[in-house]
């Protein structure tokens, strides 16, 4: 579905910028990502989710290295950076 495609594209962008990625192939419960980030000592985590919204409204939740979800006011900075960089890098579309 669209969530897997969105996750693959997000992973491809990180990889294209030299950021190591763990991309899990199956649907996981929300606590899985913050636990994994904390347990593996990762710098951050991203979970693709539509949450309680329709599946076409995919978005993602971002977690700090501690496993805590990034929320206000930090989420505003991330949202602003996304909006200012809506044109993806050409290699970002290659999710193979």
UniProtKB/TrEMBL annotation:
Q: Per the record, GO CC terms?
A: nucleus
Q: Which InterPro entries match?
A: A-D-PHexomutase_a/b/a-I (IPR005844), A-D-PHexomutase_a/b/a-I/II/III (IPR016055), A-D-PHexomutase_CS (IPR016066)
- Pfam families xrefs: PGM_PMM_I (PF02878)
Entry keyword set: Isomerase, Magnesium, Metal-binding
One GO BP annotation of this record: purine ribonucleoside salvage
Which Gene Ontology MF annotations are present? magnesium ion binding; phosphopentomutase activity
The answer to whether the entry has keyword Magnesium is yes
Which residue ranges does the record assign to the Alpha-D-phosphohexomutase alpha/beta/alpha domain?
A: 2-86
Q: Which residues form the signal peptide?
A: none
Q: Its family?
A: Belongs to the phosphohexose mutase family.
Q: What is this protein called?
A: Phosphoglucomutase 2
Originating organism: Nothobranchius pienaari
- Lineage of the organism: Eukaryota, Metazoa, Chordata, Craniata, Vertebrata
Q: Which gene encodes it?
A: PGM2
